[in-house]
Specification:
Rossmann fold; 7-stranded mixed sheet; about 350 residues; alpha/beta; single chain; 2 domains; 13 helices
Length: about 350
């Protein structure tokens, strides 16, 4: 058994959606040790997804590409400050920070590492779990709870909501975040516009949201020109919008994961990504894991729509294997299939 710790550090140096999927582990730690301080080490540009999380004592932000001096300063700052450190990744950097931070370390080890690196990580980590290729990310996180011998709590924790949102005046609407980070997760402009027409026929207006990046703004302005205004909102306002939305639509993005976790009826468009690993986690968890592919899959408040070509999910970065590539499985996905999933969601 692990002794009751006074201070715990969780390390999650990944993208926003990955960090959100780490919150069930943090909640498990909080429920097991309610009087402990729990800090989380994250990239600075992802910290917003943890805003208002009641399970967290402090968020420690770091640059995504720190200099050697910045890394050394952080190493010194963390040195033996905690009783337990948990690395949620198998990478070298998070493992090194876990080693620095605590007397008891837990983390993930992958067979993809060279032999020497695996051996060094086994020395650095007192308790470890193997990285699994076809295991849902939340399940991977909860295996770390198993390693620490604490009960699992399979709940995603969303950021705090704003009291109200000024992005919409009222009425029934579908909230859509159409812009993933990379082109290989994008659906087509014509597809989104056809779905918007179908939503209008169903008595729903479109509320389009997006991030502050110039390329994303240009892309969304082109998609929604003449149909909807694109709103740039922070996480608290996003939560308010999700709380009022009749249905949410989006590709594989952090906002889609957030919509599912918030309890919104969520229609997620998946292409090359493997839903067994990255499918949105519905409220109440996954009693039945997502299948590798299907036309429309439903679990709880989430519907995954795929165009199940024989090659998918390939897990590659598009058909040309780079982040600017398109994906045929998404380009050939027809609006009627997406609207069929919407009809199931709003029935």
């Amino acid at each position: 058994m692990v002794a009751v710790p006074s201070r715990i550090l969780v390390i999650s140096l990944r993208r926003i959606g990955d960090l959100l999927l780490t919150t069930p582990l943090i909640r498990s730690l909080r429920r097991a040790w309610p009087d402990s301080d729990i800090d989380v080490l994250v990239f600075a540009n992802t910290a917003g997804i943890l805003a208002g999380n009641p399970d967290i004592s402090d968020v420690i932000p770091m640059p995504q590409r720190p200099t050697m001096a910045e890394s050394a300063c952080l190493f010194a700052r963390l040195w033996r400050r905690y009783d337990i450190a948990v690395s949620t990744q198998s990478g070298d950097r998070p493992t090194v920070f876990a080693f620095a931070a605590a007397r008891l370390r837990a983390g993930v080890i992958t067979d993809d590492d060279p032999w020497l690196a695996r051996m060094l990580k086994r020395v650095a980590l007192h308790r470890s779990v193997p990285a699994a290729d076809k295991l849902h990310r939340v399940e991977q996180m909860l295996r770390l709870a198993d390693a620490l011998e604490i009960p699992r709590v399979a709940e995603l924790v969303c950021p705090a909501s704003a009291p109200s949102s000024g992005a919409v005046d009222g009425g029934k609407y579908a909230l859509i975040h159409a812009a993933p980070m990379f082109a290989y997760k994008e659906w087509t402009r014509d597809g989104w516009r056809a779905v918007a027409a179908g939503l209008s026929e169903r008595g729903l207006s479109v509320v389009a949201v997006g991030g502050p990046g110039e390329a994303e703004r240009d892309y969304l302005e082109d998609v929604w020109r003449g149909i909807a205004t694109v709103h740039q909102v922070e996480w608290p306002e996003m939560m308010a919008l999700l709380g009022r939305a009749h249905v949410y639509l989006g590709p594989d993005t952090s906002v889609t994961h957030l919509a599912a976790a918030a309890g919104c009826r969520t229609v997620a468009l998946f292409g090359p990504t493997d839903p067994r690993v990255w499918g949105p986690w519905p409220v109440g968890g996954l009693s039945t894991p997502w299948a590798v592919s299907g036309t429309i899959q439903n679990r709880g408040n989430v519907w995954i729509v795929q165009n199940p070509l024989p090659c998918m999910p390939c897990t590659f970065e598009g058909c040309e294997r780079n982040i600017r590539s398109r994906s045929a499985c998404l380009d050939e996905l027809v609006p009627d299939q997406v609207l069929a999933a919407i009809d199931q969601a709003i029935a």
